[in-house]
Design a protein that fits this description.
Layout: H1 12-34, H2 37-59, H3 62-81, H4 83-104, H5 118-148, H6 160-163, H7 173-180, H8 182-213, H9 221-228, H10 230-233, H11 236-250, H12 256-279, H13 285-292, H14 297-326, H15 329-334, H16 342-353, H17 357-386
Helix pairs in contact: 1-2, 1-4, 2-3, 2-4, 3-4, 5-17, 7-17, 8-12, 8-14, 8-16, 12-14, 13-14, 14-17
């Protein structure tokens, strides 16, 4: 039997209880929102078990059954909570229609090896479900913040107009406030001044350190590496307090240079790690060949090493830039009012002004981070191709 060929249809005693269990979980979510968790669990289990039995044993047609569940879920959601709940209900209907026939027709074994035991198949899908749950847990705060940034009211919650998808409940006024308010623009200007300089220092020192520590003849390499990446390990509040006392003694506390140096110290570990990872597949015979041809160390570095490790250097620089641009704890200790960065202004907006403009700024930063991480992933793939670790 091919690994892609579905097995025979499963018995009712297997898939109906499983669908009922999933329905109980969905009922828990709906019941909690309506103020009755126990009723939601029981109702969800009974309704989904009945739907699974009827669609597979009575209707016995997948497409009409799935459409019927979608329509019934949408109608139930519309009665309970309006258009937004109707969309959620339609999604639940689509999911349970797909999930029921996925179990009933044995598709859960279609893309796994045919020799796996039932326990191994169960663990395969359980592991995927756990990974999906972790992903949802991580991105849920982002998914909540982004729609709220278009709230027409000065609230941090969804208004009835937003839940009804009423155009009057949505506005770009928080984005307008960000681009026109002098406090926000001043904070943005400070971040733009600090982050690139900190990134430049991080890339310069981190790249040199990574190349030096990649040489086998360097003594105490592991100890030096541990010290250099310690800002990633030591709690940030401890690093910030240490920088505050140190910079105050040498006159850098509250200065632009002090903030740049502090952020550079936080970004250097990212550069060291990414460049070191790039150097793992580096062929040192290339540098020896360049030396035999009369090239000096500087020429060899820029003509031979740098083109090959450039993806790792840029990746580390992007991580260092994100770290500096998003950092708030260290700048609170080391900076002054003249170095108030964008995250500092957001922190102030939460504690003092309660400004919903924070939501718009957070959305912009999320989009910026996604764009930068996309560039990092593209550079990682390019680096693997250059080192022959992946096909072109």
């Amino acid at each position: 039997m091919s690994a892609l060929t579905p097995v025979s249809r499963t018995p009712v005693s297997f898939y109906v209880p499983v669908v009922a269990l999933a329905g109980a979980f969905a009922g828990l979510l709906v019941g909690t929102a309506q103020g009755s968790s126990l009723l939601g669990v029981i109702g969800g289990a009974i309704l989904m078990a009945a739907a699974a039995y009827l669609t597979t044993q009575v209707v016995q047609a997948e497409r009409p059954s799935r459409w019927a569940l979608i329509v019934m879920g949408a109608l139930a959601g519309l009665v309970i909570g309006g258009i937004a709940a109707a969309l959620i209900g339609a999604f639940f209907g689509w999911f349970f229609g797909w999930f029921t026939f996925w179990l009933y027709e044995g598709r859960y074994r279609a893309y796994v090896a045919p020799y796996l035991t039932p326990g191994q198949v169960l663990w395969h899908h359980t592991f995927r479900m756990i990974c999906g749950a972790i992903l949802i847990f991580l991105i849920t705060p982002i998914l909540v913040v982004m729609p709220l940034s278009f709230n027409a009211e000065d609230f941090f919650t969804f208004t009835p107009e937003m839940l009804r998808f009423d155009p009057a409940g949505y506005s770009l006024k928080h984005y307008e406030d960000f681009f026109t308010n002098s406090d926000w623009q001043g904070a943005l200007a400070n971040s733009v001044k600090i982050a690139p300089m900190a990134t430049l220092l991080s890339v310069s020192f981190g790249t040199l350190a990574a190349i030096g520590l990649s040489q086998p003849h360097v003594p105490f390499r592991r100890a030096i590496m541990a010290i250099l990446i310690s800002p990633m390990i030591v709690p940030l509040i401890i690093s910030a307090a240490g920088m505050y006392f140190f910079y105050s003694r040498i006159g850098l506390q509250g200065t632009y240079i002090g903030v740049v140096l502090a952020h550079a110290a936080l970004g250097i570990p990212f550069v060291i790690i990414t460049v070191t990872a790039t150097l793992v597949g580096f062929d040192n015979s290339l540098t020896r060949a360049a030396a035999n041809m009369g090239a000096g160390p500087v020429t060899t570095f820029f003509r031979v090493q740098m083109p090959l490790i450039l993806p790792g250097v840029i990746s580390g620089g992007l991580f260092a830039f994100i770290t500096s641009f998003d950092e708030v704890v260290v700048v609170l200790f080391v900076g002054s009012a003249g170095q108030k960065t964008l995250p500092w202004q957001m922190f102030t907006g939460l504690r003092e002004q309660i400004s919903p403009t924070i939501l718009a700024v957070a959305t912009i930063l999320v989009i910026l981070s996604i764009a930068l991480l996309t560039v990092v992933e593209l550079l990682r793939r390019r680096s693997e191709r250059l080192r022959g670790m992946s096909p072109a």
